[in-house]
Every structure is written in C-alpha cells, then in structure tokens.
Design brief:
Strand order of the largest sheet: 3-6-1-16-11
Structural class: alpha+beta
Radius of gyration: 19 Å
Number of helices: 5
Shape: globular
Largest sheet: 5 strands, antiparallel
Strand content: 35-45%
Number of strands: 16
Length: 272
Amino acid sequence: MVKTRRLTVRHVTTYSYDVPVHYALQRLRLTPKDGPGQKVLEWSTKVTGGVVQCGFDDQFQNRTELVKVDTGATTVEFLCEGVIEVEDLAGASGKHRGYAPLWLYEQQTATTKPGPTIRGLISDMQKQRKEMDDIPLLHALSAEILGTVSYSIGATDSAFTAEDAMAEGKGVCQDHAHIMISVARALGFPARYVSGYLLMDDRVDQDATHAWCEIHVTGLGWLGFDVSNGISPDSRYITVAIGRDYRDAAPILGIRQGEGEERLDVALQVQQ
C-alpha cells in the first residue's frame, strides 16, 4: 500500500430551481483541514449564483461557510478544488482534539438511536466482547454490518436513521457509518461520523462524496472504519468534516423559502 499520496479534487455541486429563488441560505462544509496524516496544499471554493456571508470553524472544528443565494436565481453552483497530501496511518488519527468533549460522542442522536433491529446486533456484540479485545471486536462489528446491510445506491436517503437502514437491510456509506456509530456508542465507545473524499481504484468521476466513522479506543485514540468497503481509511481518504452524525458533517445543508422544486447535481473527480 502506498504510504503517502498527493490527491487532487474537483467537486462541483449545482442546485437548479424551477421557480426563481425568493430566499435561500446554504451552509457549506466543503474545506478539508490539516490534521493527522493530512496536509492541505491548495484549496479554493468558488460560488456562482450566491454570496458567502461569513466563514467560521464550528464546534467540531469544521470549516463552515454560509452562502446566501442571489434573490431571483434559478441556479447556484459551488466549485471546490485543491490538492491534499495524505499519509496512510492505518485509520488511526490519534488522540482526541478540539472544542467538543469526548463524552459528547458517547451520546446517541435522533439519527443513531437504536431500535429493535439494532438492539439485536448490540446484544450479539456484547456477547462477543467477553471474548475479544476492542480492536478485533470493532472490525468484527464492521464486517457484521456489511454482511447484514448490503450496499445499495438509492435504497435510502439522508433522512433515514440507523434503525431505518438496518431494518431495510440495505443502504449506502452514510447508513453503514450511522449503524456502526449506534452500536459502538451502545457498547460504551465514543464514536463520530466523518465525511470526505475517496480515491476510487476503478474510476475518476464520482457522483457523491464518501462517509465513514471513527471509534475512540482507550490507549489508541480515534480509529477509522469504512464499513462499506470493509477497511480502515488509508492514503486514499481525505477527511473534510466530522460530527455526531450526518447532519453535523454534511457537505451542504440549507433552507429555502418560496414555491417550486429544486434539483441537485454533483460532479466529483478525485485522482492522484
């Protein structure tokens, strides 16, 4: 495995409205940050059809920008591009840092709260914990989730909870991360959601960002798990934002007043 890579990203997100916008505000978390195993060499964000009102680091140290869409606009486009140097740390991003206390990541959210199906998985893992150390247990949990919830594009959406996806038996990377976070927290581990980019082995063009999770292990710190691919993050992964669940780390979230529908188009390229 390559220990260090220099990755280039070009990420274009376009919202199209069938009725001119009266008022819309978008919150962007699209800027990677320097951190363990990751150095941002270049990065820029260009907005067409809107104006950046302010920028700040949120409680999870995610770089956040608020964009007001131009009144009367029928499209708004966000173009992000840059170069990031990434080192393979075998998924280990080290000790806890930041404004948010570690105990905050022990608490379930509305998205990760276990229901009947996930409670069954928790019970199984509690039995295994009596015979396994923490790291093998978490890898076993990741494999169990992937074996139970098949990867299926379009089977769920961003409103699905961990329990919804577990009961459905299929989902995407967001759902896999939420389920693992839910179970890990129930077992007493702090756990957090990560959004970012992934260099794919078989393609350059992608239609979505990626997501995985990190679990805090005593004596080691944060350890990443990409349930959807059955591995821990390596030098192909770029971390952009973290949080308790998807809503804390979503690339773009917004509000809009007025009638009409909107369409979202994403064009993403990640290459070495």
